[in-house]
Design brief:
homodimer, alpha/beta, six-stranded mixed sheet, 12 helices, elongated, DNA-binding
DNA sequence: CTGAAAGCGCTAACAC
DNA sequence: GTGTTAGCGCTTTCAG
């Protein structure tokens, strides 16, 4: 062995291993069987002699051996991959959500495959299909479809599933569900506005997706406004541009008369639009109107004297979803599949 | 067949396929060989009779067959997965970068495995290892290490590689490299500040990573400032909090004397810190000092009367990296491996 | 304490 | 036009 006649460049730093090294070669070079190597790799060192272990370890280093995930998963039927589908990755919400998941999944040695459904039901179906073909161990979805029927393939494949952020009708109890406290937060907000003397609430929304978290918010606001005798207008921005929004706001101001008006934006990106429209109109908050927005991080704090916010906690949503999913994968279903993550009211100077 | 005596629930919507369906079963049920099914699946319908095609398609639907990516990749030695490693996913930059990559990769039917290196060299090494075990078809990395030696395993595995955003010493020309025009943009900015009458530049940086894009920016600013005879201070925030920054800024103001001072923040997150510190001090821009920041999206536009920005285009960086990488995977190396994506100067009212 | 060998689901020669 | 069959690299009984 030490007088190996064949030229090899194992010593070269930039070694160019043409052929992929397999467990078989490791076994051969180490002078043991593949079984033993496999056992070593999986920490299954029942009563393996220390000498053997060291030998194997040495050979693995020398040969630069790297186990093939595909072959492994084929036998063990577990990929240690979690599939994640979000509505729109360019959104800050999605990126924080992902951060949260990652923090729980990575330490447990799970990898994440991240797909974007573009808030589109068909695209989402394809994403699901792709991930099922990858045989992912679990799936976390910010759903773009409203009815659970569309997710049957996942259930049939026996793949643990968690929904985050949005609501899906007829979701079976075996599916994990993690959202913000949309309803409660909206109700409290309405009561606060009324307490502050606002008599007219203008909701700015954009319900591009039927499953949007904006829906329960609108419900809560509607009910609470009715109960408290507040006037309510809903501006759905779908399609409209900033100028359209500016017009709408101006019209509303006119009709408000003596009533104090508060504009409520239902998500971070909408706040930007409201600010742009207000700038066109020369509106100032809270001088001319009150302003409050749902949001995902605190940039609004630095706008003007600070915008009043209801802050979601996407990172926690992601973390909890990841934890619950891992529990399911381990066949230890969590006690409660309905997880609600509280939002936080950040006071500003726009009310 | 129509009088199948065995009870099955193929008609049930929520069918519970216990066993995984393989290509073999499809073949059997369709009354053809596995080869034929495989050919059908891969669109390799040389002279396959239309009848056979339809039959197979039908059976695939009926059985709810889903090809196994692992088995496929094992034979074909290609996973159609691209590994992506970023420094910090919670960063807006990373999320836009990812968006850009995704837009080129997804239509070409590549999936993305996204890992976070936490701006840490060791963590990054593990990420690389993991992705190589997954046998990814290509790798896009926002590098956390400064020397190319550390990336040899990737080269040895013959995996196409692209670096984005940051610089790695001694990178071979076979590796793609996509960055902003950091140097040029910084030089132009200095000249602009001088032209506007600023005599003192205060750079706020945080060089947590040795490979940071902030380095070339600092270089360019240093050189240009010297050439133009501007005074220059560099505040490295590493470790310091907002109060520390406030103190530093106050001290600098004192020493500035009659010189007009401009604060230059080298990345978006730092701008937040500068704003927080200024608020503590009661500083206003541009009344007391000028302010300009590098950033990744235009939120600064809405702060005060609008912050002067140098906007990066992370989405384009990601897109270009994805395109070049795909070209390499197809053995069509792009003409130029050094891709520079221009930044954009967004005028504000803080200078 | 270790090994031999079957087989996971698929592709691609090579046959006919 | 379609079928047979040998592996891809690994885990895991079952046997010593």
């Amino acid at each position: 062995m030490s007088s190996d006649p064949i030229r090899h460049d194992r010593h070269t730093k930039a070694m160019n291993s043409r052929k992929t090294i397999t467990i078989k070669e490791v076994a051969k070079v180490a002078g043991v069987s593949v079984t033993t190597v496999s056992r070593y790799l999986n920490g299954n060192l029942g009563k393996m002699s220390v000498a053997t272990q060291q030998k194997i370890q040495q050979v693995i280093r020398d040969l630069n051996y790297r186990p093939s995930a595909a072959a492994k998963s084929m036998r063990s039927d577990s990929t240690h991959i979690i599939g994640v589908i979000v509505g729109d990755i360019s959104n800050v919400f999605a990126s924080m959500l992902f951060t949260g998941m990652y923090k729980t999944l990575q330490p447990r040695n799970y990898s994440v495959m991240l797909l974007n459904a573009d808030n589109d039901a068909d695209a989402e179906r394809e994403c699901v299909e792709k991930l099922l073909q990858q045989n992912v161990d679990g799936l976390i979805i910010q759903p773009s479809r409203g009815n659970f029927e569309d997710y049957y393939p996942i259930v049939n494949a026996h793949t643990p599933l968690a929904f985050v952020d949005r609501y899906v009708d007829a979701t079976p109890s075996s599916v994990i569900h993690v959202t913000s406290d949309n309803y409660e937060a909206s109700r409290r907000m309405c009561e606060e506005l009324a307490g502050k003397g606002y008599r007219h609430i203008v909701v700015v929304s954009t319900t591009t997706v039927g499953t949007s978290a904006q829906i329960p918010r609108i419900h809560a606001i509607t009910e609470t406004a009715r109960r408290l005798g507040l006037r309510l207008s809903v501006l759905d921005l779908a399609g409209g541009d900033d100028a359209w929004l500016a017009d709408a706001l101006r019209a509303i101001r006119t009709t408000s008369g003596e009533d104090r008006t508060a504009v409520v934006s239902l998500m971070g990106p909408l706040l930007l639009r409201v600010l742009a429209a207000s700038r066109m109109l020369g509106l100032e908050f809270p001088r001319d109107m009150g302003l409050l927005s749902f949001d995902d991080w605190e940039w609004g704090e630095y706008v003007g004297q600070g915008i009043d916010l209801i802050l979601q906690d996407p990172e926690t949503i992601g973390r909890r979803a990841g934890e619950a999913l891992l529990a399911m994968i381990r066949k230890q279903p969590p006690d409660d599949n309905e997880i609600v993550v509280p939002t936080k009211r950040i006071p500003g100077r726009s009310l």
